[in-house]
Structure formats: structure tokens, C-alpha cells
Design goal:
By secondary structure, the chain is mostly helical. It contains three helices and no strands.
């Protein structure tokens, strides 16, 4: 997921992410559900956890 840039799409380019908008995450979630991947946890990671890291993480955590 990470090498295809489907993991943490909202991460800014500064930290190595694609800096995509929320619509990108929605498409990823919908397509994963359409094919029955069973990867429902990806949306929690992409749309909740990553945003907390960006908002409250240290600079070192963001770079990692």
C-alpha cells in the first residue's frame, strides 16, 4: 500500500507523502471495499491516526 501511495495519502510532500485531499482517501476506501479486500482498517489509519501524527507529532516523528 505504501509503495503505491495508498497509505497515508494526506501526508505532505515535505515528509514523503503525496499530499492528496480527502477525496483520494474516499476512493481508496471505496475501491478496497468494492473488491472485498477486508482492509477496513486502512481508513482508520489514513483518515484518523495520520492526521493526529501530523497535528501533534514531533518533527522527528513526522519525518519518520
Amino acid at each position: 500500500m505504501g509503495t503505491q501511495r495508498y497509505l497515508a495519502p494526506s501526508v505532505p510532500e515535505t515528509y514523503g507523502g503525496p499530499e492528496a485531499d480527502f477525496g483520494y482517501s474516499v476512493v481508496i476506501d471505496e475501491e478496497l471495499e468494492r473488491v472485498g479486500s477486508g482492509m477496513v482498517g486502512i481508513s482508520l489509519h489514513n483518515d484518523v491516526v495520520v492526521l493526529y501524527l501530523l497535528a501533534y507529532g514531533s518533527e522527528e516523528q513526522k519525518k519518520r
